[in-house]
Amino acid sequence: MLTSAVKARVSGLGFWYGNVRALHGLDMEIRDRKVTALIGPSGCGKSTFLRCFNRMHDLTPHTRYEGSIRLYPDDIDLVAKAVDPIEVRMRIGMVFQKPNPFPKSIFENVAYGLRVRGARSRALIEEQVEKALRDAALWDEVKDRLHGPGLSLSGGQQQRLCIARALATDPEMLLFDEPTSALDPIATARIEELITALRERVTVLIVTHNMQQAARVSDFTAFMYLGELVEFDATSKLFTNPGRKATEDYITGRYG
Amino acid sequence: MLAASGGVVRRKRFDRLFVVLGMLVLIAALAVLLALFTDLVRQGAARLNPDFLTSFASRRPAQAGILAAWVGTSLIMLVTACVAVPVGVAAAIHLEEYAPKNWLTAIIEINVTNLAGVPSIIYGLLALGLFVYEFGLGQSILAAGLTLALLILPIVIVATREALRAVPRTIREAAYALGATRWEVTAHHVLPYSMGGVLTGMIIGLSRAIGETAPIITIGALSFIAFLPTPPFTGEFPFLSFAWLGDPFTAMPIQMFNWVSRPDPAFRVNAAAAGAILLGMTLLMNGLAIWLRHRLRKTFQW
Lengths: 256, 302
Ligand SMILES: Nc1ncnc2c1ncn2[C@@H]1O[C@H](COP(=O)(O)OP(=O)(O)OP(=O)(O)O)[C@@H](O)[C@H]1O
Ligand SMILES: [Mg+2]
Known about the structure:
The complex is a heterodimer of chains A (about 260) and B (about 300). Chain A is of the alpha/beta class. Chain A has 10 helices and 10 strands. In chain A, the strands form 2 sheets. Chain A has a 6-stranded mixed β-sheet with strand order 6-7-8-3-9-10, sandwiched between helices. With about 300 residues, chain B is an all-alpha fold. Chain B is built from 12 helices and no strands. The radius of gyration of chain B is 24 Å and the shape is globular. The model of chain B has no long low-confidence stretch (mean pLDDT about 85). At the A-B interface, helix 2, helix 3 and helix 6 of A face helix 7 and helix 8 of B.
C-alpha cells in the first residue's frame, strides 16, 4: 500500500526570511497520490516548508530558497529561479488556514482558476464547477444558490468552497495549511473525509497541529523541529514506533 | 445575574460622557453648516429660479445668471475627473502593489502626502507657467481641468492606497495560489473590492476642486463671459467634438467672487444664490459618495 511513485523529491531545502534562516537542509520524498502530514511545534517551519511548494514566498521580498524540490514525472525544480512561480501555482493548489473565498458568487469562486487559465466556454466552465463542487462534497448544499455570495456560507462550507476552488483546475498536488483549525469538530470531520477521498487523484501535503488528524488522514508523516526535519516515516510506523526521542516526546504530548 | 459592581459603573460613565460629547460636537458642526446654507438660500431666494441657471452674466443684477459659470464648472470637473482618477488610481496601484519597498518608494510616498498640503495658489502658479505658457494651452478649460487634477491627485492617490490596503492579504494569497499574475490579482480582485474607497476618494477630491478659486483665477479664468463653450456633440460625423477644451471659461466660485466684489448690493443676492447652488452641488456629490460606498460595502464584506 505504501509503495507508490515519487511525486516530489526535496533535497537540501533551506529557506531564508532576510537574514533569518527558517529551514535547514530538508530531505524527503513526497509519494504520488498519498497524503503526507507535516507536524511539529508552533514556529518550527511547517508553513514555511509548505509554501515553498507553490512558491508563495516569492510574494515576500528578501526571501531566498536553497536546495531543490524536484517535481516528477517531468523533473522540474519547483524552487529554481528559472521556473516561473505562476507555472508552479498552475499545477499545485493551496487551501489556507482560514477560509478565504473571494467576495464573489459561489460559482465565480470555483470558476476563477479556470478563467485565469483562459477557459471561455460557458458550458465547459459550468461542467467543471459542478464537478469540483461535487468532489468537495458541497454541491448538494449550494446547487440552488450558485450565484449567491460565497461569503454567505458557514465556515465549514466556505472551507469546502476553497477546496472546490483549488480542485477545479485539476492540480497535481494540493497543499493544506491547517485547513480545519478554524472549524468545529463536525466540519473538521467532513474535511478529513474529503482529504481521504482526494488521495485517489491528487498528492496531498497537509500541515496540522492535531496529532489525531495526522494519524487519521495521512499515509506519511514528517516531524519537524526548529526548521529541521527530525523524522519522516509511514504514519503507522511514526505514531506507534517513532525512531527518535524528540518525535516520541512530541506525539505523546510532552512538548509545550 | 451579575450585579454591576461600582467599578464598572464608574468606568462606563466615560462611555456615556464620550457619547454625549461627540453628539454635541457633531450637532454644533451640522448646525453651522445648516445655518450657512439656509442663510444663503434666504438671501438668494429672489434669484433662485430657472432663469438664473439659463442666463449669462449681466450688468443688471436682476437679469444676471450663472449659465456660463455652471457649464464651465461642470466641464472643468469632467476634465479633472478624467485626468485625476486614472492617473491617481494608477499611481496608487503602482505604489501599493508593484513598487519595491525601498528608499525611493518611501521618498515618493512622503512627497505624495506632502503635496496634499501645498497651498492651491502654488498649483495655480505652476499651472500658469507649465500648462498655459509652456504647453501653450492658453487660458482654457483644459488648462483649468489639468490644474485642478494636479491639485486633487494626492487626495485620490492617498484614498485609493488606503482602499487597496484594506483588502486582506488572505484574499490576494487565494488569487495568487490559483496561478493569477500580479496584474490579474489587482484587476480582478484588489481594485474591484476597493472600488468603494476609490470612488469616495474621487468624490472628496472633486468636491475640493469644485470650490477652488485661487488656482483658476491665477491661470486666467474670465469673470465675465456671455457665451458657452463649443458644444461637445455635433450633428455630423464623428458627433463628438473636443473644441470646448480650448475655450475660455468661467466657473462658479469665480462668478461669486466677482459678484461679491461689486459695489451694487443687489449683486450680493446673486452671489448668495450662486453660493447656495455651489454648496448644493458639493453636498450632492458627497451624498453620492456615501451612497456608493454603502452599496459597495454591501457587496464586498469580509
Ligand atoms: N515573514 C517572516 N519574516 C521573518 N520570519 C518569519 C516570517 N514568517 C515566519 N517566520 C519565522 O519562521 C519560522 C517558521 O515559521 P512558520 O510560520 O513556518 O511556522 P509554523 O511551523 O507554521 O508555525 P505554526 O504552527 O504556529 O503555524 C518562525 O520562527 C517564524 O518566526
Ligand atoms: Mg503555520
